[in-house]
Design brief:
CATH topology of the largest domain: Sodium/glucose cotransporter
CATH architecture of the largest domain: Up-down Bundle
Strand content: 5-15%
Shape: globular
Distance between the termini: 35 Å
CATH class of the largest domain: Mainly Alpha
Number of domains: 2
Amino acid sequence: MSTIDYVVLFLYFATMIAIGIWAMRRVQKQEDYFLGGRGFGKLLQTFAAFGAGTGAHEPGTVGRTVWTSGLSGVWSALMWLFVTPIYWITAVWYRRMRHLTLGDWFVERYESRALGAAYTVFALTFYMFYLSTMFSAIAKFAAPLMGFNEIWGMELQTVLIPTIAAVVIAYGVLGGLTAAYWTDLIQGIFIIVLSVLLIPYGLWALVTEFGDPATQGISDGFTILHQRVSADYFGLFDGPAAGEFPIQYIISLTLLAIIGIVVQPHFIATGGGSAKDENDARIGLVVGNFLKRLCTVGWALTALIALALLAGNPEIIKDPDQVWGVAAREILGPLNMGLVGLMLACLLAAMMSSADTYMIVSSGLVVRNVFAAYISPDASEQTCLRVARVTGLVIIVGASVVAMKMSDVFGQFKLAMELPILFAAPFWIGMYWRRANRTAVWITIATSALLFFVLPIGLTNIESLRTSPAWTQTTNIETRTTTRPATAADVARYEAWTRLAAEEPDDAGAAPPNAVLGEPIEVVTKTGGNAIFWKEGVEVIGTPTYETLSESTTGNTHLLVQRHTGPLAGKGWFNIDFIVYHWLGIDLASASKATLETLRLPPRLLFPFVVLMLASLITPRNSKLALDRYYAKMNTEVDADPSADQAKLQAAFADPTQYDSIRLFPRSDWEFTRPRPKDWIGFLVSVAVCFVIVGLLAWLAGIGS
């Protein structure tokens, strides 16, 4: 990075802190700090949803998965695409709750302060791991851009992560959600720039490096892209990794996201709770998330361009997580226009726009559902604000510590994504079924925690279980050898590997095929051998031995199927989910890794719902008065005028039966209501936009083929 790049970074940080100081003057009470006075319109709600939903780890993750799996790797982030139409419905919920935190919702719906406190513990744990993925990603991205991995004798992440955390704390603690939303507007623009900046420069770099700049333009870069990269890298549902993201896996990820996303704590704010009215909430949440999906298209295209241009880069060969950072340095660095600093500022924006919201939401939970609930119920507004500003530090500091200790982006992300299982069923069922009660919720949380977290960890210490042949089964190992002409990217990859193997043999990895442009090469792809019952796989004890199950040749592809026959030992958590399939006698030996991940879905999604509903039938109901008031409130449309809104609520509380006419089952415990035209029309339009985005990605990837 040059001096101008560091100037760009300094100006970015200074602007964020200045906004925090400005916003601090607008904060007079808790509603101002935690929800900005519920005064945000469509524009700020859009960029708040966009910023909070776009993490710094995602461009890097898409870069890595597209590099290794081809275009199908885009589903590592685009898996959220078909969740977006659901937001058209849920945005109304968060606004009609009229709460400051989701913990308040659990307190009201289930008449339990303890559930609010338990939800707070979940939220803090969730954010520490989820936000830590972004801190770790920033460190991986910044290293190649800055050109060094150490500073003042310490690892770069040891200095960089606390510095970023300090800036987020400065403007977030000062200005609350107002500061977060205004910085999200600026940072959202930066994220969009991040998503498209490398594309034109990258296409032109392909032309200047491998074409004829005198006769060719940027659009010809697409043609060179297809000339240099094998055609199997352009499939949306299959690729060189033998279908790492097949359709059934994408569907399972979508369902898991739909169930879990609704209890992510920041949705009370960015999901619509801070909007002026329901329309602003809906439009902001849906449009903001569709902006993110469009940016994902840009990330995938950028990764393909990087593959064509930098297939021989030894840094990426050693660590594919550095695709984005190396591409930015190699493409933008020579221009010396401050664009490298701008790119780093853009990625910082992606992280900071999420971190500020998470910090404020977390502090709200601590103040509302722990401090005010148990420690000082009569605390003044100013006291609560002081506590909020102090406790906001906890989430940022905690996430920084996790990031510096683990530094495993994918591992941190997976753990964070599994935590919402604990509260998802109580939320969904509580929205629609009166019979759900606090005792049943506690039973559901306890059994889910036991089965999906406590036992999987505890069983790892049982040596006989870890080495038992019954529980160390693996899927069959499939070795595909495909003969095809070598591309320029294949040649560059082999030449770079040769140099790397000579200089750093321990980091070189497996050798790619010896490639000569246009000559046939054998591309070997090995899949399978995945542990069925152990989360981190199995290790071979002694010398590995295999049994050949089948061998066949179809066209230009030879397939060899084998299985382990020697002793193995499980690693990591025990996948207790798969005991059901074992008891049913289902043989999963031929299942792919994606299929195994898909099969984890039914037990994890269905079990909490079944337990909650059965437990609710045999445990006491919550009070009728509280339920009548809650469902009356959730059926009362929000008025942007607070006084008028309160008047509507009082009328609803006085006569909850007035909404029986819109209920689908008026004389039952089910609270489903008839959808209004704008409900189902908006939902269908959102579904259509999802397919438009997929079509756009396929079209862009096909240009020049």
